[in-house]
Amino acid sequence: MLFVILCIFAISLNTAYSRRMDDVILQFLVDATPVLLSPLRISLHTCIGYEDTIRLSREMSNHRLIHGIHNFVKDIKERIHDNLEHQNLYMLDLDCDYAIELLRQAHSNRMFIAPTKWLLLQDRRTMIDNSNITSTYNNSILDIFEELAVYPDSDVILARRLNGDFFQIKSVYRPSPQRAVIWENRGNWTVKDGLRMSTFDASSARRRNLQQTALKSCLVMSYPDTMNHLTDFMHNTLDPMTKVNYIWVHHLMNRINATITFNVVYKNWGRKTKNGSWDGMVGMLQRREIDIGGTAMFILDERIPIVEYIHLYTRTKLCFIFRRPLLSTMKNIFIMPFQQSVWIAIAAFLVLVFCLLHLSIKWEHYRGASKTSAAYWNQLNNSKPTVTDNLFIVLGAVSQQGYSYEPYRVPSRIITLMLLLTSLNLYAAYTANIVALLQTPTDSIKTLSDLLHSPLTLGSYDLPVNRYYFKNTNLQDPVRTAILQKVDSKSNWISLEEGVRRIQTESFAFHGTRSPIYTIVQQTYQENEKCGLTEMDYLSQIYPLLAVQKQSPYLELIKNGALKLWENGLMFRDEYRLYVNKPTCSSQTGFITIGFTECYFAIVAMGYGTLLSVVVFILELLWHKIRSRSIKEQTVLEETATEGANLSTLKYID
After folding, report:
1. Helix 387-398 and helix 410-438: axis angle, to 10°?
2. DSSP labels for 272-286?
3. What's the whole-model pTM score?
């Protein structure tokens, strides 16, 4: 069901001026208005009689047009400044006495800015009423537009009825406050031919010539020397975003035939002060001191109500960049060459060999041999075999260390040969996989949580803007808070050159602007060192965008110009000369240094083994000392007993 808003104010009997709404005007409103302005809601300000108001409302309702009709100027300010919704149309009859007052109120309330639309009706006919010919045309009312803020974004259409049913349609705007009013011929309308437009182009396409209007902008830079290299594409590690945006803004100004002047602000895109105002470039846009921001900036929630962003992306990204660490620094690679099922199979095989070897050696020892071979057997294996001997035989063969046992009979020799051949094959496969794994980078660092708990040291580029975004973005995230604390705890706010050097020489993750980092990488890294570079987004922000004033009169012109920069390739041409992409990995060949970090688990195993051997050695010493004392005491007791027996024997003889 269509919702129709009908607000009708009847004209009192003593109204100073009233005019009739004939069928031609009604037909024009319902026929031409949807094509010209595509309104969703119409607010009509007329000075017609009660019956004509009813007729007009009924006719517009029949054509499903939501509308309100106002015939008084009283309280017009509250009604006209109701909202600025899209497709909201205000229709005004310029022949009414209060037309100029209403236009001035609309001007003071900034009601001519987009997306509000205006349709102005004016009757230039000579009306015949009771055989008296009176002229209703007054051209002086059009002079009021020299004082109004009808700028290139405004959509104000004047429909003048020249004679009979012929309406001349024009649009009015001013390129800037310093320029005169321009009237555009849009077409005409008649009952027979309907609406005939000279062009259906949008205002942003028709009003590109701003007649050298002087606009203002602002450049934000971190290095004063950037002013000397804005267009020579040199030193692209310093303020590349400022340089490329400076070129783009000039492209936009050339397209709309405007001039531009720049203010310069150092290291301050805009921060909210304690009193609620903004400083830097954002503050200038908020106070309307500049028309367009000359340097792109990131979208922050608190900036959205202050500025309007333009879809002109700058490929500047703040992120962590690091070389993928070797797998050996993240996991115990000494158990990774074989799958779990292979390790289980190896363990089962060794248990089987141990059992078979134990049985064969026992059988070999107790079974005996011929008298000629028994001497040879006793010479090689002169002691009784134990379980420990069998265990060390298996361990010696598996670890390629050898053993002292020499098999004598065929079964023992077959078992030992099977053990040695299997150990040789396993050892070859194991060592080959170990060498490959020691040189393999890992992909285990995929999230900020992985980065936080990795052995990588974290650092950041020491710039005020980097500190601001680093410390004021996503503070509710505990992982990001922990990363910030990790950077601050070690005071790793360092220069760009030092950060890139530490990526090359250490296990280090550096947070900074991507393009300057890659520029230094291209200049200082070897080809094999460019492999394994990884990026990780910390801010979770899209690319920075250009910004303009909120409700800027040049918003659509700049938006369309930004799209043209992209379509024509000018944006990519300038980016290509100022921005460096991630280096390609052309060669992974080269020597990889293996240090204590890569062999951590092996060193730990050796350390625990050494500690265990020392403990066993001490226990053996204690056991040997206790055993020696026990043997000594036993010897003394035996000697004492022997002496006592000898004395008893002597006494008996005596």
Report:
1. 40
2. B-TTS-B-HHHHHHH
3. 0.76
